[in-house]
Design goal:
Strand order of the largest sheet: 17-18-19-21-20-22-23-26-34
Largest sheet: 9 strands, mixed
Distance between the termini: 91 Å
Number of helices: 18
Structural class: alpha+beta
CATH topology of one domain: Immunoglobulin-like
Mean pLDDT: 83
Number of strands: 60
Radius of gyration: 45 Å
Helix content: 10-25%
Strand content: 25-35%
Shape: elongated
CATH architecture of one domain: Sandwich
Length: about 1100
Amino acid sequence: MKPKLSAKKLLIAFLLLSSTLYSQTVNKEWASQINETFSGIDKNKIPHSLLKDYAMEFIELNGYDGTLTNENYVHKGTLTSIYNTLLMARVKTNVPDLVAPTVFKQNWDKSRKRNFITLSGLYYKYSQFKENAYPDGLIKISNEKLYDKYNNGVWQNPYEEKQVFAITSPTLKYKGLEVDVELPQNLWYTNQENEINQISIDFGDGKGYVVVPFGATKKITYDKEGIYDWEYMMELKNGQKLFSHSAIQIEMPLHGTTIDNFRLPTEPCTNGWEIDMVEFTGTQTYANQFNTATLEIDYADNDCIIKKPLIVAEGFDSGLLGSANGLGDNDYLDFIQEASFDSGDLPEVIKSYDIIYINWDSGRDYLQRNALLLQDIIAWVNSEKQGNEPNVVLGQSMGGVIARYALADMEQQNMDHDTSLYISHDAPHQGANIPLGILYFARHMVDQFVSTPIGDLDIDTGNGGAVSIEDIKALIDSPGTRQLLKYNVGGGFSINNTLHDSWEAELQAKGYPQLTRNIAISNASHCGIPQNFNPNDLLFSLNGNGKTSFLTDYLLNVLGPIADLGFYASAIIFKEPGLLLGSGILPGSSKFGIDFWAKALPEAGQSKQIYKGRISYTKKVLWTFNITVNLTNKGFNNPSGSLPYDYYPGGQYRVPLDFQGVHGDGWYGQYNINSYVIPSFNFIPSVSALDIGSGTTNLYNADYLRAYTALTPPTGNKAIPFDNFITGFQNNNGLNEVHISFSPRNGTWLAKELDEISGNEELFDCTFGCSNLEISGLSRICDGGFGYSVPAGADSYLWNVIGGDIVTIDSPSLDTNSISISRNGSNSGWISIGVRISSVKCGVDDLVIVKDIYVGAPTVESISFINTSSDSSGGTPPNDDDDELPNTGPELPNNPTLIADGCEVYLKLNHTPNTNEITDIEWEKITTDIGWSKDITNHGGNYVYLYPTCNKEFKFRVKTKSDCGGWSQWQEFSHTITACSSNCSSSNNNGITSSNFSLYPVPTNTFLNISVLSNHTWSLPASTTFVIDGGNGNDDSLTDPDGNGGSTTTTAYTHPTLGLNLSFYNNMGILVYSTTTNGIPAQTNIPNLPSGIYVLAIEYQGQVESHHITIN
């Protein structure tokens, strides 16, 4: 079942058309242009003084010529569009029966009454240009002006006669199987009165056509609910028959209620009635007037005895359904269906109550006047009640603030209300919200009129929808509407909240009843989750070509309540298959260009455009040239100081239109309209439904976005003035609920308040199940111990800490809603705390929430290699590393070995959580045979140069100090050097072997043996036992100094005279010893060098290889 909205009427009003109607804008440009175009036409020659081509056409008259089609069903808006088009088509003022639009509406309104459908209709003959009037020479066009055409002095008649016939009901829906129907004479409009014989109607009840004389009442009875076609047949005196049709949805009345079931309070109840209908008149007056209501009483025992009263005050009632539906927009059936569907334990509990449902007859009147009426009803209930059970008063939406006012005032006036429990259901204690962009749209539509060509009347271009502009004006200007809405757009598009502010001041002063338990239901998100859009997002857009009634029908659905009026508009917009309505047949030669959009209020402190609306009208005259008029174009920004109310958590209005479905596609295709609409918006903010701070303190963005729970409510000047409350939460879903809807959670919660079991009340808190829930506690720990928690109330908790030995868990148990941890020594780094939560009552099953926490001093998160030149590198940098030396880096020493192998490595430490708090960094080499800048100068900072001589893995460790956490633990890192010209030799306990040389012993004390490998890669003289002539290797001739026939060798490399230059450098890059070998293999004596690590550079004719040699 689709949930009902109670303040819907308010919404409609609001979403529809705005504000205080102090002014209107009349566009006269159309009249000026069309009169200029037709200035050469003798209007006395136009038959019936009605010319369709002269009119601004709101609908195609030819589509309603007395022939039935699926496209020409008539509803109230269709009839209005036909009527207004005829008004625009007048070339004189003396056309019979065509009264002003306001009189046309008033005539219909005055004749409507409860359980009675009053029809209205029209039959007119009119003129239009013949299809080929211009090419056939029946009319003259010159400079886009029309002139009568004469041939040999004879006037050429360009006109043909047409007729339009339409009848309809003022409503699309009727609640009841029995209804009286009448077509009054004063609601029949025609210029052919003497041509009509009779009108017959087939009501779809199986009885066929029955003659319905003007003013005669016909009682119609249906066996079941459903959609019925009403066909109208008009017989002319010449025997011609014309047809029109409309459709109506008949709904089954509650428990068989019929027209005759109503009684006065002084009349007896009949036991046979399951629902007792009482027409109640108040006795107290506000501003010298009293109000009336219809009470629907559902006795628990069906015995006409009130023993245990539950008084339900309904919300806002727009009155737009008309008097035919006497109970208004909502009734007891709507309430009990909502309260009984998917609402937990509530249905079983309320069965024991005698429910008195109040239908306001003036549901948009002053709130004070209806509050006094409620006081009279409470007093009457007390006088009728048998037994000692106190009353329970439930106020929904507007009814919630009316009930609060009434009960508090009764106590202050020493009147006995005998009420023990006051329930406020999503009531606007601090005002209701309809997006201001929509209110500007509404005001814009209400304000826009166009003058008839003959200048005697002004017609609202938006009329022709399911609800008239006049009705919407009356609604939005009503006191109840203006008192409830936080924002009101007044005349001249100014913000006028005077009536709302004065009501709020009076309500605050009145306070709350003190002799009752006061509880509240808010349909706002229990988790503080906003609506599913962001501030200043698009709320709706509508652009294309079509009828202006699209705007009212569209808005009535987009931003009106979901109930009856939403049904009207969606049936029209989407051409409900059962009703076959549509927005009417479009004129073939005319079109309205429409471009409208509205946006949500922006973030606090911002000023942005939130509304734009433009309408133009184009008419093609005789299919030759266009007349185009810009009717209106306006835009507005949000007022200064506004908060983004539209998106805040709150009981929401859900837009019923779905333009992604087949209905939307059909609408687009037929009318060339593009549209977007937001799925929902905030109607009653949580702070209003819960009356945060009782309206006496300023509320800010954080207050509107807070998650409110009865277990831990706010205190101080932002306290909640209710003894208990609940917000919206359903099965691990803390999203916003539909305004005044019941759910399994709030239904069961309310049942516990109603069941009269002492101590059974529930302090509802499921915030531990919110999808936006966070673990509370610090995200940064320096030293010591700290606690972390999630809300209590779940059935089970299970904590887990991921982070090695960085922290110690101090809690004795991991199955509560909190955990305590402390830093483990000097260990530092990131940890993750997680908790797994389950709760049957909240529908939460294994919800996992994780929080990341940093403990201790900053630590190194990663190492970046920095390339300092375009042609050298010390390794392959990651993709996210810097590609050049940053300007902020230190100036570090160059390679002290003076060996130009270009494979220096520049490394940077990347710390977490940040570098700002670091006071010191300590470095230490693990790979000791590679030099680095720390050997030369203790420059500090997080950069270092490595000075390798060959490729290998370099290991080191660091620790970091800060004021938060002192020293961190040591962290070990490695960097693989790959860009040197050769790989480092492998070493063991006895020596070093590279790809060219073998050195041993290493470590050494006094000598070092050097040999060349047979598969070396250097350019050396061939291995031989002969001496190369001159000993310089440049002469290929070989000599045998011993004359013994010596020769070359291909095994171990030998050369008796090869001189390799050997240089030893200390860790400061200073040359401390050098020598040259005399032949290979060779043994070099090492002088008395201090113990340490030295760089040995081996060089021969520009070829260099270096190794780290340890000398003991």
